[in-house]
Here is the input.
Amino acid sequence: MLYKVLEKDVYRDFVKTLISKYEFIGPKKRDSAVHDFAPIKSISELDTNYIKTTIPPAKKLLFLPIEKLVSYEIGEKITVMPVNKSSEKILFGINAWDINGMNFLDRFFSTNLVDDNYMAKRKKLFVIGMDSEPAETNFSLSMGTEYAKDGFDIYFTELRKKYFVRIATPKGNEMIESYAKVKNASAEDFKEFDKYMDNYRMKFKLSVDIKSFYDNFESIYNDEDFWKRVAKNCYSCGSCNLVCPTCFCFNIRDDLELNQIKGSKIREWDSCMIPEYGLVAGGHNFRPNKENRLKQRYRCKLKTFLDKFGSYACVGCGRCIEACMARINIAEDINSVKKEVSV
Ligand code: SF4
Ligand code: SF4
Here is the structure.
């Protein structure tokens, strides 16, 4: 890691240069409450002072909601043609918990079976991180994801008069060296950065006792009354999955032309919270109840992946809390396990 500082006017020129030279995706104001990551053509469109984005930016770019994976033609033999659309892009202004969410997806799509479609896009994505204000539903500090250690090329932290710049890759260093005048960070700059981080961490007001949830989960696993209470209002709509930066479930369907000769394999986001998810041939549904689906969602995110991957499949972004019409709140549910086992 290289540590540099950049003056604020130099930063502005640097960003302008990147916008003019690259396909540049950054936060843009959509309405008074929400920002969206979208293509940016001018620095006046860019608004890095965002609190909420509905769809996580990296997931939207790397794991598309709907994507053609391969085309095929059925003749004497079946010819398969991979469809892999990827182009160089800069993802600018992504915050630490969304970078950590992307890191989770990177691992998922490159462990055991490598997903070529995902990885081709990931290799061409240049990531420039930046802190954003946590929403009141954000519990990233409890999940240890309020700070990104890796997964980015460059990370900007805005100090009083300058930007503290962390450069994590040779590509990041090349880009900084090419387009900006930077100085090595001094001992004073490090001190100011540490102070900034202390203050930044104090902005995360929502906390969860994730260790207690993990330790007590198995003892509450078969408590049907508890899970019925937790899932009582769930509509099984699947919104919580769609907005989650780490949810990766997908379905693959065939799209066969009427001539039955040419077709494609289409991948679409799926949701473990909808009843059809567990429906298999013969009409059996291995997870027909909403309480079982919610329990499984929490187990997958907050237990299984820690055991398997060494990291939770939740970065505490709070999007599922905001998206849920039934007001099901993962942070409250994490904390309620502790209360439940102590009565
Ligand atoms: S928990 Fe909320 S968002 Fe998720 S499926 Fe149930 S109602 Fe929909
Ligand atoms: S489970 Fe909810 S809080 Fe956790 S990462 Fe997904 S959307 Fe964010």
Observations:
- The CA atoms of residues 252 and 333 lie 32 Å apart.
- The pocket of iron/sulfur cluster (ligand 2) is lined by residues 243-246, 301, 314-320, 330 (CB under 6 Å).
- The chain has a mean pLDDT of 95.
